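#struct-help
A.M.: can someone run this one for me? Single chain, 169 residues.
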Amino acid sequence: MHYRPAVKVCFFIVSFFITSLFFYVSVMAGDMITIGAQEDVLIEPYGIKVPARIDTGATTTSLDARNIKVTGGSVSFNIPEKFGGKRITLPVKAWKYIRTSRTRDRRPVVEIDLCIASKTIHARVNLNDRSGMNYPMIIGRNVLAGNFIVDVSKPQDPASTNCTKEKDR
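D.P.: on it. Structure tokens below:
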């Protein structure tokens, strides 16, 4: 079969584009860690380990915070007693309106370091009393994107929170 030169050029361009895209996706995935639907998260530098639900449907990450008190530009809160009850004070970086199935809440947002699997992520986290929920933390897309691949069939590995001092974001 003989093809016209224009068809050959188009075929070459499409082949080059597909090959480049495949290479890019392979390189990007190489930096990401596969995690399951539930993971233990270490809140640094406090050394607090909490179980988290990995939620690709959630835009932002949320932490169970009790006795939330906002004063000036800071927020003080307690980690649930089950996880040590530590009182933490951090600057409020923003306020986030969150729509739930029942309400629309205004929540303070703080920046903290989270160790998930073997990666430390500097992340924005909204604070909310999650006492009625199954997990004290939800990891949302703001932490997942570009850092993790979620495989819901992957079992939780309790020994997986092993981070180095280097921060990834």
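A.M.: thanks! The chain has two helices and twelve strands.
D.P.: also worth noting: The longest strand covers residues 104-116.
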